[in-house]
Amino acid sequence: MNSRTTSLLIFAFFVLISSSVTTAFHITKIRRKYPEFSTYNHYLVKTDLQSQIDRQPNITILAVDNKAISSISKKPLNVIKNILSLHVLHDYYDVEKLVKVLTTSKTAIFTTLYQTNNGDPVSLKGFLEASMVNEGEIAIGSAILGSGLTVKLVKPVLSHPDTISVLQITAPIIAPGIGASSPAGYKEVYPSG
Q: Which domains does the chain have, with CATH numbers?
């Protein structure tokens, strides 16, 4: 093999590698435009969830604003990671698509990033359930039997069709068993500011 052929093969290899590691979006860059979610964004970085999110081809993030996320801010970082990974749905759902799904089936179950990382399909620990309630409101909660749909959809925050959707919800969703205490010696990390 001559040096020109070798150089072309090396170049092709690097092009192939670089194209396979590109992401569809950078969630923390997108979210910087929304200061009301800065603490949520901070936790995505601290827990390294942003890198998992960025590798997904299509995704929906259920985000809570700075005031609402304060209810979990004193928890250990590993627990916050578990809670926030439950807020990342596999697949793209904007409000229109959610309404269509819920109008057809009344209730739907969604797979989350938590399920992918540590969930138990038997107990439904890593799944969320959504349903239409009242006059067209969307209620969301853990799919674990008896958990209840206690969180409501507030509004869409951003949408890049068929890639990423960020929807604001009223409060963090904490599935039974996810808010467990941290291992001995684990240091809690809190955001500054």
A: 26-169 (2.30.180.10)
